[in-house]
Structure formats: C-alpha cells, structure tokens
Q: What sequence folds into this?
C-alpha cells in the first residue's frame, strides 16, 4: 500500500487547476486506484448492441481491468457479467465474440449459467446438498455488474452497485451520440466489422486529452498531412479544386490555429466535452448522392439539414471513449498499465444510408487510426515521448493552463474558444470526483 491508497486528500492534491502532477500518468499505484475507484464509479462504454444481434450472442471486453461479457439474454435485453466462474474463477468465455446458446457452460467442471448469470446446473449436485451453497454468492451464479444502460444501441455499465445514475452522469452530452445515430435514415447504427487495434506505450489519459488538443494537428501532423497538402500543391491544384476522398480527409488537419480557435469547444459536467461547436475538420466533406434525400424522407428537409449541419469533431465521453458523429467512429482507450494503452477504433454503418458513406468512414479509420496509418503514428510518437519525458526529475507538473480562468465551474455547460484546455481540466476535475467518491481515509480503514 503506497501513499495514495485510502488517502483521498493526496489524490485530490495531484490536480491543482492549471496543472496536474506527473504521478497521474506514471505512478503504478495511481493506475491501480483508477481501476478500483474511477472505472468502478463511472459509466464506462462496453460495446454496441449490434455486436450481439441474436439471443445468446456475446462479446468479451473489459471495464477498466475487469474482464466482462456483454451478452444478449433470452428476453432480448443486453446483460453485462463478470467473466469469471463463481466456482474456481475460470474465465467463462475466451473468444472475442460468439454465440453461447441459452446458457454458458464453464469448461472446467461444467457448471452452467443462464445468460443473465443465474446458476442453471451443477453436475453431481448432491455433493452440495446441506452445505449452504444457495446462500452464498457462488450459489447464485455469475455476477452481473452494478448497472447497465443501453442508449440507442450504445451499452454502458457501472461496476459499482450504487452511484451516479446514467442520466445524471451524461446529461446533455448525449446530444453527440444522438447526432451520430440520427444520421441514419433508419435511426439505427450497426457496427461494421471488428475494430482496428493499436497498442500504445503510454498512459490512457494522454490519448483522451489529445482528442480535444487543437494546438497539435498543424504541428505534430505536419509530417503526414503537411506532406500530402504540399504534394497536392506541387501537382498544380489549389485549395478550391475538388479533392479525392483521401485528400478531403487529410487536408483539414493542416488548418491554421484560427480555424481551431473559431471552431469552439463545449464542456459538460462529469468530464465530457467536444471540439467543433461551430464547424470542424469534418464540415466540408462532399455530399454522397442519395443520402440527403434518404434523410429527408425520414425526417423532413428542415430536420435533415439540422442533423447534417452539426459537425462536431471529437466528443469525449469521460473516462475513456471518443466518438466522431459526422464520420461514425468510436475509439476506446483501454488502460492496461500506467504506461500501456490499447486503442480500439470502431466504425459504424448508418442503416439505410448509401454504401459510399461507409467507404469514407472506413477510409478515415484506416488513414488516421490504424497501426498502418499515416497520421496516428505522429500522435503515438508524441505520447510515448511524453511518457518517457515525464520521468525527467526537476519538474513534476504537467501544464493544462491554456485559457484558464480563476474559479472555473465544471458543473455548468460552457462553450469556449476552440483552443482552450478547459476540457482537459474538466476531465481532471471529474477524475478527482470519481477517484475519491468511495475512497475511505486511512484512519477509517484502520
Ligand atoms: S471452475 Fe467453473 S465449473 Fe469449476
Ligand atoms: Fe493528432
């Protein structure tokens, strides 16, 4: 037990308005406390219900460091269970996805469980008669997580039995998810294939902060996006010439500071926020034939226009996902250690929309987020350098001060200049809140 365990004051002292202590990124004890407190008390993204369309379909993942199974129960509801046999702990499901039929069967001694976790049968059950098994947690079956909420297909869970409600946790930030789903003429999304997976040797929060870091694209991505723009010019094209889809995607990364300042950043309570309030790097993609017509048929022209005029850039849902509504992406930053993060980047099909939209979405994911991308590498290099650089002694604090104001109130929604680091401060404010929500003090623990 180190100095932060059962010491909420010490944890809270790591965040002080304009700066945060390096231990939040590099200290293994802080990482363990994040798993135990932050990821248990917050609502964490699990998966999309189109990953488990049929009864008995399951998907294995983790919430923080907790292995879980998302499964469609016989009543068609999505359940989230700890991936652990109540008998001796064996993981019940190993495959990433599959169909288990009406029940799970443990591969070790064949105890079986309904898809809501309830114990179904034990071989040679008479050996437990009179032993009181039914009164124990073991006798009840696989344990379900504290709470699950399916919001328009997106499944979130809270590990803790008690805590903040889904609606209070997300509040008005759900408008970004709404816009992504509303872009489907059927009002429905479907996950399109497995995610791109990319391992990063850095802390998970660096990736989350980067999603609203608007002062880095024109600098860190000059090598990739800048080169593409230069080649475009060298070929004799101008800014206004129609661009092929790949150029439409990559050129806006080189937009000047002014573009990002004017695009705006909105912050919501509990650590959520988004860039691209007024416009974004996704605003000027060319129209796909037939799409607007399909949307208009569903919503009417006025609403269809309103849906498409919302071009939010990156929406961060605290603690560890980001979505891009206009291009139907969702990225999960899965913490594996203080200095190790797995990134999974999903794309979604807009049900009843033309296929060209999915082609562009897939192209974006490959170009920007894939381990074989040309843009994601720029960011990776910066994160990994930061993770190493933070070990330099003599300076212990990381700066998050841009456009800082005294007495910032993170309980209110705000729209600010698009280069503010307010959203990073908002995340750290929420970080302290959920880290310390159920942390006992040393005195109480003794
Ligand atoms: S460990 Fe699962 S049935 Fe024994
Ligand atoms: Fe970047």
A:
């Amino acid at each position: 037990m180190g100095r932060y365990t059962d010491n909420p004051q010490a944890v809270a002292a790591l965040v002080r308005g304009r700066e945060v202590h390096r231990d939040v990124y590099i200290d293994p004890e802080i990482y363990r406390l994040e798993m135990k407190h932050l990821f248990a008390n917050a609502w964490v993204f699990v998966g999309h219900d189109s990953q488990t369309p049929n009864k008995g379909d399951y998907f294995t993942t983790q919430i923080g460091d907790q292995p879980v199974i998302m499964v469609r129960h016989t009543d068609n509801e999505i359940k989230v269970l700890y991936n652990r046999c109540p008998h001796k702990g064996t993981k019940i499901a190993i495959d990433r996805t599959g169909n288990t039929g009406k029940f799970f069967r443990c591969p070790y001694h064949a105890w079986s469980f309904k898809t809501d976790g309830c114990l179904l049968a034990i071989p040679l059950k008479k050996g437990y008669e009179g032993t009181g098994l039914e009164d124990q947690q073991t006798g009840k079956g696989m344990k379900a997580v504290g709470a699950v909420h399916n919001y328009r297909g997106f499944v979130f869970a809270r590990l803790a039995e008690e805590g903040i409600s889904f609606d209070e946790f997300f509040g008005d930030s759900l408008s970004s998810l709404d816009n992504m789903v509303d872009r489907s003429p059927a009002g429905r999304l479907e996950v399109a294939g497995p995610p791109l997976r990319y391992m990063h040797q850095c802390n998970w929060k660096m990736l989350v902060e980067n999603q609203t870091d608007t002062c880095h694209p024109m600098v860190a991505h000059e090598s990739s996006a800048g080169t593409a723009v230069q080649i475009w010019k060298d070929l004799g094209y101008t800014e206004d010439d129609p661009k092929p889809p790949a150029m439409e995607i990559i050129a806006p990364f080189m937009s000047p500071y002014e573009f990002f300042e004017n695009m705006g950043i909105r912050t919501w309570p509990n650590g959520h926020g988004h860039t691209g309030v007024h416009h974004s790097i996704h605003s000027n993609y060319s129209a796909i034939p037939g799409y607007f017509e399909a949307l208009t048929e569903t919503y009417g022209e006025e609403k269809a226009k309103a849906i498409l005029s919302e071009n939010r850039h990156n929406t961060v849902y605290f603690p560890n996902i980001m979505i891009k509504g206009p291009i139907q992406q969702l990225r999960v930053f899965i913490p594996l250690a203080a200095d190790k993060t797995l990134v999974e980047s999903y794309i979604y099909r807009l049900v009843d929309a033309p296929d060209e939209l999915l082609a562009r979405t897939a192209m974006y994911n490959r170009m920007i987020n894939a381990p074989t991308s040309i843009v994601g590498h720029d960011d990776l290099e910066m994160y990994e350098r930061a993770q190493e650089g933070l070990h330099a002694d003599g300076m212990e604090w990381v700066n998050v001060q841009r456009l800082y104001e005294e007495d910032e109130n993170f309980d209110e929604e705000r729209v600010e200049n698009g280069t503010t680091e307010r959203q990073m401060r908002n995340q750290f404010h929420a970080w302290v809140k959920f880290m310390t929500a159920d942390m006992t003090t040393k005195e109480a623990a003794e």
User: Anything to note?
Assistant: The pocket of FE2/S2 (inorganic) cluster (ligand 1) is lined by residues 85, 87-88, 90, 106, 108-109, 111 (CB under 6 Å).
